[in-house]
Amino acid sequence: MKTKTKKRMSPGMIVIYAILIFWALTTIYPIFWIIMNSFKAKNEILANSFSLPVGDLFTTSNYKTAFERLNIFSAYRNSIIISCTVALVVVLLAGLASFAIVRYSFRLKKFVYSLIIAGMMFPVFSTIIPVFRMLNSIHIANTNNLWLSLLSVALPQIAGNLSFAIVVLSGYIKSLPIELEEAAYMEGCNAYQIFFKVVMPLTKPSFATVAIFSFLWSYNDLFTQMFLLRLPEQRAITRLLNELTAMEGTNYGLMAAAVALVVIPVIIVYIILQKHIIKGMTAGAIKG
User: Fold this and answer.
1) Closest CA to 69 of 61, 81, 80
2) Which intervals hold domain ABC transmembrane type-1 (predicted)?
3) At 158, which helix (H) or strand (E)?
4) Helix (H), strand (E) at residue 56
5) Cα separation of 42 and 52, whole Å?
6) Structural domain total, the chain
7) Is residue 1 domain-resident?
8) Which domain holds residue 50?
9) Contact at 8 Å (CB) between 83 and 236?
10) Do 59 and 186 have their domain in common?
11) Are residues 35 and 139 in the same domain?
């Protein structure tokens, strides 16, 4: 009968775990501090900023004020529409582009891939002016139409995420056995059927990773929203938080409640989908 032997942790592993725990605490505590102070009155935050909101310190007035003064649900709707659109389009376009780059030979293939890599090196700050002028010339930006304004934000974010997505997906697709695709082709499948019925099911973790990161980057992208979402009813949640900071600079309780309303959905998304994120990134690291 085999007996299980407990592995002892080496001193090096103990040090690594201690550093990782400390790093995790420095990341988690500010979020906890914000949520904790969002349940305190603004005059109590400076005096008792590190105390738990229990007893007389506890209040929900900050959240009531936030929902009364700010159009939270409209901002959430706009953020969800933009971010989901970006994630879906990036997954589709990047997946097809990656499949073509990996499985097909054509002229200037290496040059095209080099351009994709180069696209990751240009920050959004360097392209926002020409992008804004282009969107304005086709009458998408600076309009009173809600859907056109949301589209004007989604298009630059889609373009900004494509390079990263193509690099991640192409590395994973390259590792798939080509015999599976050849067998599907022999069964009469065309290129699109091979992609949707063979490649995508086998690369779910990688596609999920790209979709999640595209969604989160879009959700948190304040810079593009500052340029393209002008009217109050068009603002997404991060733009709304920026407006609140300008209006209520000293009302720390209201600001903490607004930050919590912005951050909590992202945390929930990450907690629910963390397995897909980790699985996709580690699979890409091993197979790419």
Assistant:
1) 61
2) 76-273
3) helix 146-174
4) none
5) 14
6) 2
7) no
8) 11-63
9) no
10) no
11) no
